[in-house]
Inverse folding.
């Protein structure tokens, strides 16, 4: 899609990268070692409320929405998904004109 992307192996690494650098978007998996995606999303939003967060999951919607803190996730993509659905979510999240830094992918 033409974006610069930084990868992290788990939620703690992702949070450290987010704190150290500037990102236009965070894409995270729901289930990860050391810190799950819902907690990462919450901490990202506490530090930068305008940074969009997309959560990707294979978990059922009811479980996800029980765990996700209100306002911490801008979009949820359920697995399996089509590439065009992912592209639409990313483009929609970035449509607010957040700048040119990059995206942080976790999971």
């Amino acid at each position: 899609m033409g974006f610069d992307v930084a990868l992290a192996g788990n939620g703690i690494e992702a949070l450290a990268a987010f704190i150290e650098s500037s990102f236009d978007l965070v894409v995270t998996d729901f289930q990860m070692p050391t810190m799950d995606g819902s907690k990462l999303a919450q901490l990202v939003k506490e530090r930068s409320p305008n940074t969009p967060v997309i959560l990707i999951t294979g978990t059922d919607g009811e479980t996800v929405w029980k765990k996700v803190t209100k306002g911490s996730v801008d979009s949820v993509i359920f697995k399996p998904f089509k590439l065009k659905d992912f592209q639409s979510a990313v483009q929609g999240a970035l449509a607010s004109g957040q700048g040119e830094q990059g995206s942080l992918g976790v999971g």
